[in-house]
Specification:
Blueprint: H1 2-31, E1 36-42, H2 47-51, H3 53-61, E2 64-70, E3 86-88, H4 92-101, E4 109-121, H5 122-130, E5 134-138, E6 141-144, H6 146-154, H7 186-199, H8 208-223, H9 233-240, E7 247-251, H10 252-260, E8 268-273, E9 275-276, E10 278-285, H11 288-299, H12 301-309, E11 313-314, H13 318-324, E12 340-341, H14 347-358
Parallel strand pairs: 1-2, 1-3, 6-8, 9-12
Antiparallel strand pairs: 3-10, 4-7, 4-8, 4-10, 4-11, 5-6
Helix pairs in contact: 7-14, 8-14
Amino acid sequence: MRRILGIALAVVLIGGVVAAVVAGRGGQGTSSTATKTVHGVIGSEKAEFFDDPDVVEALAAAGWKIETETSGSWAMDRLPLKDYDFAFPSSQAPAEEIRAKSPLKTTPVRPFYSPLVVVAHSAAAKVLADNGLVRMTGAKSGTLLMDPYLKGVAADRNWSQLKGAPAHAELSGSIFITTTDPSASNSGALYLALTSFVAEHRKVVSDAAGIDRTAALLHKLVSAQGAQQTGTDAPFRDFISGVGNPLVLVYESQVASLLLQKQDAGDLVVLYPDTTVYSDHTLVPLTADGEALGKLLGTDKRLRELAVRHGFRPQGARAEFTAATKPYSDYLNQTLAGIGQAPVPTAGILRQMAQRARG
């Protein structure tokens, strides 16, 4: 009898072990199917997207684990690209420089984009509007009139010269927009593209003569700022926390992400330059795995939804962004109505402009 009971107990124990192993394997299959790890270098404005647990889960469901580090878009081509599967700068110009050094001569992918905007505190926006530099389109949004703004910069206009500014202690000194370093960061370089285009009467700078004509103005725009960051994340966070300059150039995606994730926007007002630049976030494959990831970001429905949640506009799908941001139309120009787009000079021209602007 004891032997029979012992055998029966052993059978039960073995069955339990087998069941546990099967259950364990099943659990592994449902919690993560990630089979490939890829390494990439990205612009700082995309860090929150790739760090989002929902994005991590969606990528894992498709068989991917992504490891990233951040860099200024215009500094990426100076990194050891052999260490990465992809580079993901914030516009096409630096992407083309990276592509030229890539061993994989495939077409870069542009899964989403974002226009450049200026964030302002409400007092600054009102003063600018009262002095003909901004046209308010809503309680939390407006259009920055680039011609009057650049004329004011060229004339060394100060806040103290503007009607209503003396009532606000934070509005002092010269009027300028905080940007990132144009020699290292995409948004800073695109700011030079935008302002030079306006200064040249809506013509793109394409030669040395154009660089010479715009150099003095661009130097004023940059030198007034002092030290500059190499990514837009830090200046935007400083602005939201209430420190730093009252006017900061950022990506619309940063504002939209803040709103969509229901974070406190404070007294933020979004000013769309009447002529702006679209930042086409461009993934450059450096390996076959990087190429496959780029295609996935542009086609996977869940990843596109998550890109919108982080404020990006998916290529060729305006309705997705418009629907998601409908509750925040007081802040966002969803259709970009009335906003012109400036072409971007070649990478070589932009680098020369950045050197002259920084002096």
